[in-house]
Amino acid sequence: MAKILIVEDEKAIRNVLKNILSDEDKTFEIDEAENGKMAIDMVEEKEYDLLLCDIKMPGVDGIEVLEHVREKHPDTAIIMISGHGDLDTAVDSMKKGAYDYISKPPDLNRLLTTVRRALDRTDLVKENKTLKKKIAKGFQMIGESDALEQIKSMIEKVAPTDARVLITGPNGTGKELVAHWVHQKSERNKQPLIEVNCAAIPSELIESELFGHKKGAFTSAVKDRKGKFEQANGGTLFLDEIGDMSLSAQAKVLRALQEGKITPVGGDKEVKVNVRVLAATNKDLTEEIKEGRFREDLYHRLSVIVIKVPALNDRKEDIPLLTEHFAGKIAEEHGNAAKQFTEDAIVELQKIDWTGNIRELRNVVERLIILGGKEINGYDVRTFASK
Ligand SMILES: Nc1ncnc2c1ncn2[C@@H]1O[C@H](COP(=O)(O)OP(=O)(O)OP(=O)(O)O)[C@@H](O)[C@H]1O
């Protein structure tokens, strides 16, 4: 249900606009303001999706309304209504952030298509914002240990650069989370972060997965398909579990990194790609190099910056905050109030050997919330958290 405000000093035109819009869509909620001052008061009271605003009005004119709304309510779209004498001002208003303008007397079709487009854009902006908020919430990095603070400060420094980052650490410590943060805090965040789990893709498919293929390149290639490098163009490619990539795939990735170009399987043309590569592994790559399972030249290409994410056992001081965070999230998911953990419960949690790291802690917190009492105490932890 779109909320629209018509700002126009001529009653007859207000009526025409209102009738056209409510005939078009009965769900439109349409308000009217007969001058600029009234419009500014009204946008402060209610959140509008769209303003249709006359340019020439006595007192506060349309441009002042536009400036106010752009500054205070940037998500609200504004379509200016221009009379004979103010076409230049109307064109100018678009530089000031108006979505578009229509001329008086309003042409029915032009009015409706412009309104539709403006509302679609507002929807998109809003959707994007909710998505960003959701992502930000889902990717919170909780903890105040020295180790985590150091990681956060490294992320701040490396994110805005295009340097490749190798993220190392045991399973479940938050390597993927670090990769998301590096991407989110970089200039590339308007483009996608594409993830590839190198361990999950059979070696014979990895080339096509990364570089794409041309129709007919192999039996199941029924049409051209873009690979992950191309999908990530302008953004970031995250190669997770890079230590599990086959040597032949490593050679091809190395070439792509050296030349900034890829060749789809079955293709004869090279494609230029602009991709920042982040990689993660739980393996000790220097050991893998010694054993001949990982290419040293690729290692050096990937590890311009190395972020080591420590095991949870090495930062048990983060357990209280993490427990509280997960308890809150789980309660939200289950739709009930968050259960409290007693100090005794936290002490018990800190005694556990967390081989599965933060992922395991989250599971244990969920188990305790389901099986434990109203408040989770040390007894609950001793009883239900054992492996
Ligand atoms: N500091 C943190 N604060 C909040 N949640 C965290 C933190 N670190 C990790 N997590 C959460 O723990 C889970 C495991 O993290 P993630 O998947 O990033 O680990 P990983 O090291 O990439 O694991 P794997 O090597 O198994 O792929 C995720 O749900 C993640 O959101």
TrEMBL record:
Keywords: ATP-binding, DNA-binding, Nucleotide-binding, Phosphoprotein, Transcription, Transcription regulation, Two-component regulatory system. Residues 3-119 form the Response regulatory domain. GO terms for biological process: phosphorelay signal transduction system; regulation of DNA-templated transcription. The modification 4-aspartylphosphate is found at residue 54. It comes from the Bacteria. GO terms for molecular function: ATP binding; DNA binding. The keyword Calcium does not apply. InterPro entries: AAA+_ATPase (IPR003593), AAA_lid_NorR (IPR058031), CheY-like_superfamily (IPR011006), P-loop_NTPase (IPR027417), Sig_transdc_resp-reg_receiver (IPR001789), Sigma_54_int (IPR002078), Sigma_54_int_dom_ATP-bd_2 (IPR025943). Residues 141-370 form the Sigma-54 factor interaction domain. This is Response regulator with CheY-like receiver, AAA-type ATPase, and DNA-binding domains. It comes from Owenweeksia hongkongensis (strain DSM 17368 / CIP 108786 / JCM 12287 / NRRL B-23963 / UST20020801).
